[in-house]
């Protein structure tokens, strides 16, 4: 059963999603070579690394938006064990997709729908859950991010930070098992970044399982349980944030961090 987003999953460390040897090429360009990643319940993994290193492609592969060419993805709780080097049927890909909800760099809200309509669209149309229940839950989630009063506004009437908070609520409303964030603050004006990061930190504190692609190193250091440094389609270095940020082992990690810190 999906966790209730208002009472998030407990933070026992069971494996939610485990990825080994993830590989993806676009044409003749290998974008991911062999990426391993384990997401445990209630833990936060941050993916950092230079632009073009493959971070987004990892997230999109976990969410079924990209079809990896190789690698095994297991989700023990959902009974999924998918080997992408062979054929994968649509039903299996859909089950993988339904495990997670993604928050994008640009919020991707429908401009012609109100905040509320944006939030309830997926749970009602895709998940076919009852309208009253979905609306009540959406209001409660919007309240949590301080936006219930704006539920009848259109996205264009909100600030970028508010739009992104609606994007997060829209993801939560799907009752996913895990949350994927793809640089959720990089398109925001600097003064709006803090509000969004603070919502994400609250979710982490509440026990959500999260994978976050970010350039916000202070956030990664504060919130992540594990940091992966990607470079050229491989995880060059991984570890506890304190270790990665204070004593990176790889020269490339060091240079990347020096540029950003
Ligand atoms: P990052 O998130 O680290 O910036 P991406 O995963 O977005 O990296 O991209 C990794 C590489 O894959 C980049 O060189 C990018 O140009 C390439 N790439 C991503 N998506 C596509 C696509 N649909 N077609 C061709 N190349 C792509």
From TrEMBL:
Cited SUPFAM superfamilies: P-loop containing nucleoside triphosphate hydrolases
Domain ABC transporter: 17-257
Coiled-coil ranges from the UniProt annotation: none
Entry keyword set: ATP-binding, Cell membrane, Membrane, Nucleotide-binding, Transport
Record flagged with keyword Cell cycle: no
Membrane topology annotation: Peripheral membrane protein
Annotated Pfam families: ABC_tran
UniProt KW Disulfide bond keyword: no
Subcellular location: Cell membrane
Designated name of the protein: Amino acid ABC transporter ATP-binding protein
Organism the protein comes from: Labedella phragmitis
